Amino acid sequence: MEIVEGIGIGVAVVLAALLILFIRRALFTRSGGIIRLSVRVSTMLDGRGWSPGFGRFAGDQLRWYRMFSFALRPKRVLSRKGLAVERRRLPEGQERLSMPADWVILRCTSNHAPVEIAMARSTVTGFLSWLEAAPPGAVSPRLASQDWPAA
Predict the structure, then answer these.
(1) Are the C-beta atoms of 22 and 4 separated by less than 8 Å?
(2) Start-to-end CA span in the chain (Å)
(3) Which of 108, 114, 137, 142 is the most exposed place for a label (fewest CB within 10 A)?
(4) 144 band by pLDDT with thresholds 50, 70 and 90
(5) How much is the pTM?
(6) Is the pLDDT of residue 105 over 90?
């Protein structure tokens, strides 16, 4: 009887954890301004270190939340003021296995620190529009002037 109770408690804990994850995601996605976004959290191995999540636009910030996390606070915050796109590329090697085929990787600098983000090709236009839409009198971040892959 103790084994059955233990299994029941274990199943209840797993179901509660899944419920919390889905409620957390529903709270963030219902307000709009959400995009699917992966951030490269580690560059130790080529093509690895990508973490899936979603980004939320909040004023001059892009807040990135990990997909599978209980945290209510963003894991990373990118400010529009210090963010500039250096280059854009398609996934290569192992990266093609870890993200959808229509995604694009943007290498950015955020306050002089490099960051790589990946998003759907259809989302890139909106992201770049948000990035360039600085308030009046502010200097718009530069975009690298190089050939980008065709859409």
Answers:
(1) no
(2) 61
(3) 137
(4) very low
(5) 0.68
(6) yes
